[in-house]
Write a structure and sequence with these properties.
- About 30% of the residues are buried.
- This protein has a single domain, classed as Response regulator (Rossmann fold), CATH 3.40.50.
- It is α/β, with parallel strands linked by helices.
- Strand 4, helix 4 and strand 5 form a beta-alpha-beta unit.
């Protein structure tokens, strides 16, 4: 089996973090979660995930700002960021943030796995 892919999820909702962790660990991914996008560069650089899920509503630094910071960072900008939000405008929020994709909440397990597979080379 190839090396475990690493997923980093930013969301201030612990239920979502637990659910995603449960689903994705079960699917064979390594997961790290954070409830805040403060010091986003340090957080991501310390883990170097293969893909990032970014919630829109995060305390202090919101998802758009955090995503923009990542996308303007030379070493981290190529990590796909999937914007996820219950906001019905998630597509345009993802666009504003410069994210690589988006996932509406609530989502089902298959959607979550599909978007990872879509953005990660096998």
């Amino acid at each position: 089996m190839s090396e475990q892919k690493k997923v980093f999820i930013f969301d201030d909702n612990t239920d979502i973090l637990e659910l995603c962790t449960f689903i994705l660990e079960d699917a064979g991914y390594e997961i790290k979660t954070s409830s805040t996008s403060n010091n986003i560069i340090d957080q991501v650089a310390a883990y170097i995930p293969d893909i990032i899920f970014m919630d829109n509503w995060l305390p202090d630094v919101g998802g758009i700002e955090a995503t923009r910071e990542l996308k303007s960072h030379d070493e981290l900008k190529n990590i796909p960021v999937i914007y996820f939000s219950a906001n019905n405008d998630v597509m345009s929020l993802a666009d504003q943030a410069g994210a690589d994709g988006y996932l509406s909440k609530p989502f089902d397990i298959q959607e979550l796995e599909n978007i990872i597979l879509k953005h990660l080379p096998a």
